[in-house]
Amino acid sequence: MLGFLKNPIVVTAEINMNLMALTVIGVISRLWGLSYPRAVVFDEVYYGQFVSLYMKRIFFVDDSGPPFGHMLLALGGYLGGFDGNFLWNRIGAEYSTNVPVWSLRLLPALAGALCVPFAYQILVELQFSHCAALGAALLILLENSLITQSRFMLLESILIFFILLAVLSYLKFYNLQRHSSFSGSWWFWLLLTGVACSCAVGVKYMGLFTYMLLLTIAGLHFWHMIGDQNLSNVSLMCHFLARGLALIVIPVAMYLSFFYVHLTLLYRSGPHDQIMTSAFQASLEGGLARITQGQPLEVAYGSQITLRNVLGKPMQCWLHSHTNTYPIRYENGRGSSHQQQVTCYPFKDVNNWWIVKDPGMQQLVVSNPPRPVRHGHIVQLVHGITTRYLNTHDVAAPLSPHSQEVSCYIDYNISMPAQNLWRVEIVNRESDTDVWKTILSEVRFVHVNTSAVLKASGCIGASLPEWGYRQLEVVGEKLSKGYHQSMLWNVEEHRYGKSQEQKEREVELHSPTQMDISKNLSFMAKFTELQWKILTLKNEDTEHKYSSSALDWITMDTNIAYWLHPTSGAQIHLLGNVVTWASANVAALVYACLSLWYLIRRRRKIYDIPEDAWQLWVSAGGICVGGWAVNYLPFFLMEKTLFLYHYLPALTFQILLIPIVLQHLGNHLCRSLLLKSMFSASIVAWFSSVYLVYRTFSPVTYGEPSLSVTELKDLRWKDSWNILIRKQ
User: Fold this and answer.
1) Which of 216, 267, 494, 610 has its CA 20 to 30 A from that of 298?
2) Which of 280-284, 382-386, 577-581 has the highest average model confidence (pLDDT)?
């Protein structure tokens, strides 16, 4: 029974020393002197703010993309014991002692380091030689721009890491497909492909381009499988379902999980939550939740409410009125009704309170039991402080003459009767008998007499003149002019009115409510709103000193100064290896020309290379040229401020193409021994120049040693490069 103990237990393992060496060298190149400089470097001033907010559990919205990348940076801060207390307000500011600089920069550096062995493995999986794979890895290792970008608290190296991991995982899965379908390794690499794709998209939406590329390649491969007569219908269906699960279902589920963790961590109110709806704000600890806790859920006749415009752009605002009236005549000579002004006011104020009144009754208090207001009910809105009724009529609005003026009615006894009946329409109702709910219901007020809809036109940029205290215009808009979120309102603060007398009611309007009703949103409701804000909320793009166009990137006609030492000439720039960038462009051009030549010749039934070499050439191009195209060309369609670092994912794919083209030329075009020898010698010379350029620009890649003015001027190889030189 114990016979197996007679022989020793032996474990054998194959270790790829090339892979091990590349990994170690990659880690050294990215982690060496990682804490230097101990100062804020370029976009660390941007991402650091979010890390601090994570540490303090304060909610934020970043319109640049999903939260997964920010969470990884925050993980580095958490592992380093960062408390979030640092003022991220200036590039070059010295980090205080409580900021774990090495820990914050660690994950991007490790991601950048692992891109080196990934490049090696990708070419091996593409069936190219180990020599070509080694060349690809060394080119990634010696690329100055990739080194610079990976040594700081930035997201590009993490994005490239997940992109390359996704490509590598899919290639391993595809190669296993031929002889071990549905094995453990097959499932592992297929599932890892989906996980890596979702992580890439979760870091930056640029990762979506590579995800779409891999889905397309997977679709083409499956299309070829359909034509395989050796596969049964059941087998094909199993393959289809496996790919659907791994490449669609799991990435979607993981993407949702990023937001779930993000929203779970950030449960406290902060400055960014003001752009969210009242319901979302009320779900956060502090802020609006502190104000609205305990409010009645159902709006009833006699309710005292504040009405917030749902659009919330360019700023949140509430329906407001005050004792001042519209001027008898505007500056352009048009007349007004001279009624009490109604505006949308971007601050909390007692004049934001309104009372929901039943037109058939005089009382302004909630009855017992309360009579809830439902969809389709007719109401009057009474301004809480002045007790005048919300009104609109056929008088042109002050700034929007094609819309109706909205006012609080004053009876001047001039044959202009009040028109103050409004129909409540709950836009997000589940049925036509829905009750108007605090915070949750999005309501449209339709004027009974004119069918105009109450709209905050000021929310799209129209502010009143001095006589309106620069507050935002509110108008009555005809429904025929279309639907807009500025027509929707939700009740934010709410209490059941108890005082019929005006003096008592004014005191009541200043008092907090005490009733206890919960209004927590579901995760999917919060996710949907946050996702929509990320996609639609765009900061105003401004011209940056180091911004550039996509055309500048190919020839590296631009650079970015990341950091400058306050006293010496030491500085860090985002600059690529000139030889590598030029070689990548040449490789892409050669690939395109050769592919076109081969296609034309094959059309004439002339086959210059064997079929297996042609398939290898096409598949490599699909990955490398396709990866470059999908990560570069979309920037020509984007209306945003662009920087050189946006090109790095595309550049990575283009660099992988260089050894592919070189091996192809050596194997199929250099036919004589003399040509092969000359070609090999030229590759050695070329690679030596790559290393020399890397060494030349290392001082501005790592920030040390400090260079003299003459040395800095010598690095300015292009007039368009902005190398910083101090005035003597």
Assistant:
1) 267
2) 577-581
